[in-house]
Amino acid sequence: MEAEVREPGDALAAPAGWRPLATHPVGAIIAHYAERSFVAGDPTGQGIRVRYAWRAMSPDEACVVTAAEPAALAARAWFGARAEGPPGHAHGGSMAAVLDEAMGLAVWLAHRAAVAAHLETDFRRPIPLGTTVTAETTVGPAEGTGKARATARLVGDDGTVFAEGSALFVLLGPRHTFAGGGA
Ligand SMILES: CCCCCCCCCC(=O)SCCNC(=O)CCNC(=O)[C@H](O)C(C)(C)COP(=O)(O)OP(=O)(O)OC[C@H]1O[C@@H](n2cnc3c(N)ncnc32)[C@H](O)[C@@H]1OP(=O)(O)O
What we know:
alpha+beta, Thiol Ester Dehydrase, Chain A, globular, membrane, transit peptide, Acyl-coenzyme A thioesterase THEM4
C-alpha cells in the first residue's frame, strides 16, 4: 500500500519572475514533448510532477549561448508515493531523471536540440516524499564541434540542496538521426 503523501497544492507554480514554458517559442515545442515525457508527463499522478518555466537570460548569460531567443529554464518538481526509493523518500533515479531532463531542456533553450552524452549526479540529502523542490539549471557556452555542459540542482524551499547534477550534451546536427527518428 502506498504511503500517504502530502499533495503539492499550488507549490508547483513557477518561481517569481519565471514564465510558463509554453509561452516561449522553442519552449512551446518542448512543452509539447514534456506532456508525454515519463518525467513530466503525468502532472496529476503519484510519481513525479514537474512544471517547467523560463525567463529571459541576463546579458552575461546570453553572451555564451546561441539560440535565437535564449532563455534560462527552471522547474518545480514534486515527488509522490510512486517515486519512492528509500522508505518515505524519493528514488535516486527519479531525482536523476528530473536533473537530466531539466538540464536537457535548458540546453535546448540556450543552444539548440541536444542529447546527454555524460551525466553525473550527487545525492546530498534524501528528499521526503511530498516535498516540492526547485530544479535550478545553468548552461555553458558551445564547445568544440558542438557540445555544451550544463548543471542543475534540486533545492528545497528552505534552501536545502538535495541533489546536484552535471552533464555534457552533444548539440544535434545533420549527422544525427534523433530529430526524425521517432522522437
Ligand atoms: C523536444 C524536446 C526533447 C528534449 C529531450 C531532453 C531529454 C533529456 C536529455 C536526455 O536524457 S537525452 C537521452 C540520453 N542520451 C542518449 O540517448 C544519447 C546516446 N548517445 C549518442 O547518441 C551519442 O553518443 C552522442 C550523439 C551523444 C554522441 O555521438 P556523436 O557521434 O555525435 O559524437 P562524437 O563521438 O563525435 O563526440 C562529439 C564530441 O562529444 C564528446 N563526447 C561524446 N560522448 C562523450 C562522453 N560520453 N563523455 C565525454 N565526452 C563525450 C566527444 O569527445 C567529442 O568532443 P569534441 O567535439 O571535442 O571532439
